[in-house]
Crp/Fnr family transcriptional regulator
Amino acid sequence: MKFATIKTIPKDTEILREGQYVTVIPIVLDGLIKVFTRHEDKELLLYYIKPNESCIMSFAASLTNVPIKVFATVEENTTAMLFPVDKILGWTKQFPDINTLFFQQYNQRYNELIDIIHQVLFDKMDKRLFKYLQDKKVVTHKNPIKISHRQIANELGTAREVISRVMKKLENEGKLKQQTNGIKIL
């Protein structure tokens, strides 16, 4: 606690940009941070950092002192405990539990990324979209979910028109309802 900074970060704040060097490692206390990659005008959601979790990509980049290869934005107002990178590196030797925390996070994120790769390669868009919406409902604790077709398309790495067409199909199948206040998962 002597070295940590507790910071409240408003929704929609970009906190990491590809190419930046990491100076602090966050542990989310409350809220939600989205970590994603971007290529040209498309994004692909990699994972969310939820309460009591940290960013393994930040940890890995700081260990080797290389620029980060992802973006991170605050999805909901978030309170995070920020630890200076220079302290974390020393603490990994002094306090083995820090290594355990990050190895657990690495394992969790690795499994999530393998799932994303499988979805992109093997699942049709209707299945990917519905799973994405179910996951979004769980991490945000909201139903209906306030999100635009454009945002969904960005996070799934596809076109807005594709999302709109597939949303209509899922609605016709009785899996969701598009309302003025958001998308309700049924």
